[in-house]
Design a protein that fits this description.
By secondary structure, the chain is α/β, with parallel strands linked by helices. The protein is built from 11 helices and 9 strands. β1 (8-13) and β2 (16-21) form a beta hairpin. α9 (208-220) runs antiparallel to α10 (226-241). The radius of gyration is 19 Å and the shape is globular.
Length: 264
């Protein structure tokens, strides 16, 4: 059973889950309450039968980033440096948790992905954006820094591009985001549902445990020595070779049929 929260709307269709950010009148900010709800959901998804997840914003806007009203209250309330560090670390927990999900994750970006919303897009396995979507790492333009999302932006875009976008805070559209490597696919107005349906079909052809295993290996790779990479890969491959999933997949190949996980 997945946890429910008034700060998210969950829409499950079989083995696919759509997570809606449901505060469109405020452009779906990453409020403290929404961050907690997402963390609780990510924890539950570690042991779920869900195989794919779409993150999406209601009202035609993906996510405007951090909650600026909450930031303003920090100034007015005299929050301590330690309070702010704790808030920042909670945001880091969120990006780490979404990146570590064993399911295939799709960021369906419409309208705008700003600041923390931009960072959230960077941790997805695939980013699909509507034509004309606006992107920006706008923190420096209001005196802040894209601190916790910086490693994910660099991993997605490379250091030179990430540096330029973070330092200038300039806004750009989905076409430029595609050229930069942030967006994998651009869809015309009204084309998001078709694109998401195709992704779902492709993902369901992949063995779920194998998908989770390679995601875990990829997450570790940048932080390992070459010897560690070799050993991790060997152990992961051996575990997969001895799995029921591999036995079924190879049998299906020779029997010229679909494996069980791809049926239906």
């Amino acid at each position: 059973m997945l946890p429910t929260s008034p700060h998210l709307e969950l829409e499950q269709d079989g083995v696919w889950l759509t997570v809606w950010f449901n505060e469109p009148d405020k452009r779906n900010p990453l409020t403290g309450e929404r961050v907690v709800a997402l963390l609780d959901l990510c924890a539950a998804l570690q042991t779920s039968d869900i195989r794919g997840i779409t993150f999406r914003g209601q009202g035609g806007t993906f996510c405007a980033g951090g909650d600026l009203k909450a930031f303003k209250s920090v100034f007015q309330g005299g929050a301590s440096k330690q309070n702010i560090i704790a808030m920042s670390l909670q945001a880091a927990d969120l990006f780490d948790a979404v990146a570590a999900l064993p399911q295939f994750t799709v960021m369906a970006v419409e309208g705008a992905a700003m600041a923390g919303g931009f960072g959230l897009a960077c941790v997805g396995d695939m980013v699909i954006a509507s034509e004309g979507t606006k992107f920006s790492l706008s923190e420096t333009r209001i005196g802040l820094t894209p601190a916790q999302i910086a490693p994910f932006v660099v991993a997605r875009l490379g250091l030179p591009t990430a540096r330029r976008l973070m330092l200038t805070g300039a806004a750009f559209n989905s076409a430029i985001a595609h050229e930069a490597g942030l967006v994998d696919q651009i869809v015309p107005p009204g084309g998001m549902e078709t694109a998401l349906g195709q992704v779902r079909s492709n993902v369901q052809a992949a063995a779920p445990a194998a998908l989770a295993a390679i995601k875990q290996q990829l997450a570790q790779t940048p932080f390992q020595t070459r010897d560690q990479q070799r050993q991790t890969a060997a152990e992961s491959f051996a575990a997969r070779m001895l799995s029921d999933e591999a036995r079924e997949g190879i049998s299906a190949f020779f029997d010229k049929r679909k494996p069980k996980w791809a049926e239906g």
